[in-house]
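Incident log, structure service

09:12 report received: a user says their structure output differs between two submissions of the same chain.
09:20 pulled the input from the user's history:
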Amino acid sequence: MVISRTNAKSIKLETRQSKIRKHYFKISGMKCIIIDDDPTSRQLIESYIERTGTLSLSESFDNAVNALQKLKANEHIDLLFLDIMMPQMTGMQLLKVLKGNQQVIVISGKKEFALETFNYDVTDYLLKPITYERFFKAVEKAYERHYEQHVAHNREGFLVKTGLSFRKVSYSEIHCIENTNNNVLLWSGCESIKILDNFDDIAQLVPKKHFCRPHQDFIVNLLKLNHIEDNCIVFDMNASPKIIPLTLIDKQSLIDLIEKAKS
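09:34 re-ran on a clean worker, output below:
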């Protein structure tokens, strides 16, 4: 059997995502609906949703009128996959009556509507035929918005981007976060997780009472520190110590912060 380069890339992407999704915590997906009068297009998007761990399909509609009735029934929906050219009610007409409570990813074979749809703050505009790579990129954008609105500032932890998925991390499991030349590494015990989030953004996100930045490239959990020398912190990671120089804070100030964190 001969697999085209495009299909091979899609299979590789799906396999990578599946491995990540199985390895990390399962996170509740965004509830979504599909609105498209083309059955082939609906089936394709349904298959893409099935492959995407951050999505949960609520229902699929062949017209916007029935979809609008569902939305008016106050059922919680996070995301719409919306075609433009449909009988009875077009996607553009539906956009005009939506109240902005849901994100919208437009799926259309007509590129001329793209500029107008962005007046309604759509998340993305996908031109048919739609590849899984392009679909996933749009969903990732939608999930980042969802993350910022609903999940990012959870008191017990936050979400980090890991490859093609998200992992929920509790503050209590973090030992330190390291900014390397090419990656941001989150250290939890002896496990390191490569994440795609911006290091400075994470520094702003973690609770100041329990975390500090003793070095420009490290954020440490004050409640996990048990070995402090005159000018460095030492963590035992993977049988070899990780040494963090104290360049932004002195030893006594660090000890004071640890006492406050424990109080």
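09:41 both user submissions now match this output. Likely a transient worker issue. Closing.
09:42 reviewer note: The longest helix spans residues 132-151. The longest strand covers residues 55-61.
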